[in-house]
Amino acid sequence: MRALLTGNEAIARGAYEYGVKVAVGYPGTPSTEILENIAKYEGIKAQWSPNEKVAMEVGAGASIGGARVIVTMKHVGVNVAADPLFTFSYTGVNGGLVLISADDPGMHSSQNEQDNRNYARFAKIPMFEPSDSGECKEMMGEALKVSEVYDTPVMLRTTTRIAHSQSLVELKEPGEITVKEYVKDSGKFVMIPAHARQRRVIVEERLARLKEYAESCPFNEIQMRDARVGIIASGAAYQYVREVMPNVSVLKLGMTYPLPEKLIKDFAARVKHLFVVEELDPFLQDQVALMGLKVRGKDLFSNIGELSPKLIAEKFYSLEETRDFVEKAFLAQPQAWALQDNIPVRPPVMCPGCPHRGVFYVLNKMKLTVMGDIGCYTLGTLPPLEAMDACICMGASIGSALGMEKAHPEMRSKIVSVIGDSTFMHSGITGLLDIAYNKGTTATIILDNRTTAMTGHQEHPGTGKTLQQEETFAVDIPKLVQALGIRRIKVVDPFDLDNLQKILAEETEAAEPSVIIAQRPCALLDKSGGKPLTVDAGACIGCKRCMKLGCPALVAGPEKVSVNAALCTGCGLCAQTCNVGAIRKEGEGIA
Amino acid sequence: MLKEMNILIVGVGGQGTILASKILADVAQQQGYDVKVSEIHGMAQRGGSVVTQVRMGEKIYAPIISEGQADIILAFEQLEALRWVHFLKEEGTLIVNRQVIEPVPVLLGLQPYPAGIIEKLKAHVKDVIDLDALDIAGKCGNKKAVNVVLMGVLAKKMNIPREVWDRALDNKVPARFLELNKQAFEAGWMAG
Q: Is RNA-binding tagged as a keyword (chain B) (predicted)?
């Protein structure tokens, strides 16, 4: 049967068809749906871990135990998981283990655009790169096999265009889940220096054998067409090349580390002009050049952002040797009238009724220095809230607040950090421990909306449910915070602006660290919502104070403000900002 | 066999463009076409500008459509039609919902919502179908069915039998919303 699947769904299906028993990860766009889909298959133990490092460790343990394993994360997640990954490369596996890195060229939903193919070379493990959903599924099978045959963790890298694009996939019956026998082998799995030195040599020998395998890997393929132009490509770039230059010769690489040197040299010898088309870093090009081959690529294509068929068409049209091979339709230039200068941008915004909005409104009003974190609430940095000074990576808010305080002791009472509940579980706990232990005094605000909202509402240790919807305990955040050494703990309602401001003033003034937990469920989960608010046009003086909330349900007319009743959830924040009592719930009189 | 058809579905996060693309992809599959769909999730879902690209035909490689290559643009909102119209082929069709959803810079009063968008589009694009799909959906009983109304309009424009579309609705719409959505689709089909 053929089904239309996203790359993520196809990876999940591949895990199912090829006998994966344990699936673990941390949500992050564009990787999230892999685990969500795996969780539905019977026989697979799927779970979210609090962060990618833990996920990698859980995966390593399951693999050592003999199960086939998939570990999923977005590209920046691999930074978190890198510590166990690099050493797991030394120990190797028992059951096959595939680490998925979902990269995000163009940064559709990420804070940077690193090219995680570099991790494969850095960790000395093989890298697979599918170019559509069908390959996502089939490469899972091959990657698991390679993992077991060559005794190595394997990386499989997608990009946003592969992860979130759908194409047709041939579904097969799932194979049996078999768990290999576990036999204690401390020489292989305990990386004390004496053992690690032995394994270090094995890693290099393994790479040499993998190079041999790469020559015959079924996903590396020479497609000879016109021999005047030869292009080496992988992933989405391969599909773009096929579309734009249907008649050129292509070396399609499905395994991009280590590279098949003989195959590449063979291809180079058969074509007149050799190019590499790849997104982000010159990962392939540099290696091809090191083989002593004359190759072009990054002189034509930027190492920033995504490629597109049009971009590829334009660059190859500009070269005499490739011009005739370009499909002219891709050179079409948009008509001038259609390119408008003044189209208002439509940035993402915090939802109407978002419980984080009130916190950022107050933070802005109090002119505090806010060290921020990753999640929906990062949007608190945009106008009109503009209440965030820094945001680096998951969990960085608390540590960077401590750093800011160390650099500027005089700003002590002006520095706070904000972090979501899921992010706090991910990597905020250790930061808070650092504040307590090393005598920081900044206030930490945990924006607890009871979910991982940004990526689509995944469970985490604070929600009381597992990925597969089993009931479990829920972490008691105040008690956890107390155990970390924090004595000042306040739980507040982020919809009560006056109280929020009062507590913030007290806690930032305090000469010891404090934690403020702003608790309200995500507006997309809490459908209880009150009646929408209305503006009494007679009472509204048009001061537009309420517009500082940046709520999409509020509309600034030329003079008066009005409420879009279809969007308003009745949270009442705007009514609290109104000095003249012009905003109120339907049926209520003027306050 | 159809060599290739490129359809761009544009709108605002939360308007239901994804269900629309699912229905369309199901239709393509029933027709035995190769099909690729590309969409972006994540931060963009929070009320941002969203675009879904559907390509179908004999053999499809790239999952994305290039500028000037869309046969049809289905715009769920006026301003988004204007934002994406440069992706339309010269002889392409533009279906535009007259609904207005003001983006934050407009709500804040920092920038005006452009006036006369529909007129401008009609002045430059030969084949424009404009309608108030929100109103039509409301008359069918639920304004949220605006996406399926627009699918009805798109379906009428494509040379694919009606029963294929009906099967796609059966396949892709949850049972409890099916009746409402069939009505909405019919209303769109009639309006198209």
A: no
